[in-house]
Design a protein that fits this description.
The protein is of the alpha/beta class and 306 residues long. It folds into 2 domains: 155 residues, 3-Layer(aba) Sandwich (Rossmann fold); 128 residues, Rossmann fold, CATH 3.40.50. Strands 2-1-3-4-6-5-10 form a 7-stranded mixed sheet, with helices on both faces. A 5-stranded mixed sheet has the order 7-9-8-11-12, with helices on both faces.
């Protein structure tokens, strides 16, 4: 996903000199590639994330289009006051890109996990939040963010995510993506854990259970109409997220049903008011926390079909 992000940003920087790449020692070869091609459009703030966000706000106030990029945990938590007061309160045209969504920084533990960023940031007015699941979706969301005049937060993975979308995919601000059709239940998923959700749906299908799978890229603004349709369609909704279920997509979907008078059973599958346990690869940490395909399959089957 990092490659997809920098590739799209370089494309935008090549046609628009106001596009600026700001980073805080993210230390990837992709950043060096950007610097070689656009030395006047990149600034490295070192380990000074708050300063970076404040500087981005200043740049945006004079017409520049800054893209702020570093580890998601350091942006969403450490910089939250700066995102709120300097960027969103002023409704400035700053794009904030958090690298390593969910448990992607698996070997570094909870200090680096980005499992509460939706909870923290979605309450801030004026902020659009996008959660792409694959590299092609990342590039499409960066294009959307560039075209949108205002603050945008994009959370992206970093571990060679499986691609499920065609090369000509276009992000739609007004609806999410139907990954597969099904009649027995509806599953909503967001972010790079889409791969585990697809595998879990395959396992359910082997049991003769066919679920509709909707990939949620648009966290904010959120389209409650899709949830209401799902509530009418089957009354069985599962929500998969590599995030705390409190304040995350599970909360958003439950709120949508309550606010709009819907009637459905909602099963949240994520971190239940806890930090993730375990270290190792992202695959290992997902499994240790019940977020691998097998655990997702069992949660859906036990709650809806047994």
């Amino acid at each position: 996903m990092n490659s997809a992000y920098i590739g799209k940003l370089m494309e935008l920087a090549g046609k628009d000199h106001d596009v600026i790449h700001l980073l805080a020692d993210s230390g990837t070869g992709y950043d060096e590639m950007f610097r070689r091609n656009f030395p006047d459009q990149m600034y490295n703030f070192g380990i000074g994330e708050e300063n970076m966000v404040a500087a981005a706000a200043g740049m945006a106030s004079v017409g520049k289009k800054p893209f702020v990029f570093t580890a998601g945990a350091f942006l969403a938590y450490r910089c939250m006051e700066f995102i709120r007061d300097d960027v969103c309160f002023q409704n400035l045209n700053v794009k904030i890109v958090g690298m390593g969504s969910g448990l992607a920084w698996s070997s570094l533990g909870p200090t680096h996990h980005t499992t509460e960023d939706i909870s923290v940031l979605r309450a801030i007015p004026n902020l659009v939040i996008l959660s792409p699941a694959t590299p092609i979706q990342v590039a499409a969301c960066v294009e959307t963010a560039y075209e949108h005049n205002g603050p945008v937060y994009i959370k992206i993975g970093m571990n060679r995510e499986t691609e499920y979308f065609a090369e000509d995919y276009k992000h739609n601000f007004h609806m999410n993506d139907m990954v597969r059709e099904g009649r027995d239940a509806v599953v909503f998923v967001t972010g790079s854990i889409l791969d585990e959700a697809v595998k879990a749906c395959d396992m359910l299908e082997n049991d003769g259970i066919f679920v509709q799978l909707i990939n949620v890229t648009n966290i904010k603004p959120f389209h409650a109409s899709e949830v209401m349709e799902a509530a009418k369609y089957s009354g069985k909704i599962a929500v998969i997220e590599e995030h705390n279920i409190h304040g995350g997509l599970s909360s958003i979907i439950a709120e949508s049903i309550a606010f709009h008078g819907g009637n459905a059973k909602v099963i949240p599958i994520g971190l239940n008011d806890s930090f993730a346990k375990g270290y190792g690869t992202q695959v290992m940490v997902r499994k240790a926390n019940g977020l691998d395909a097998g655990c997702i399959y069992r949660r859906i089957k036990e709650n809806f079909f047994e």
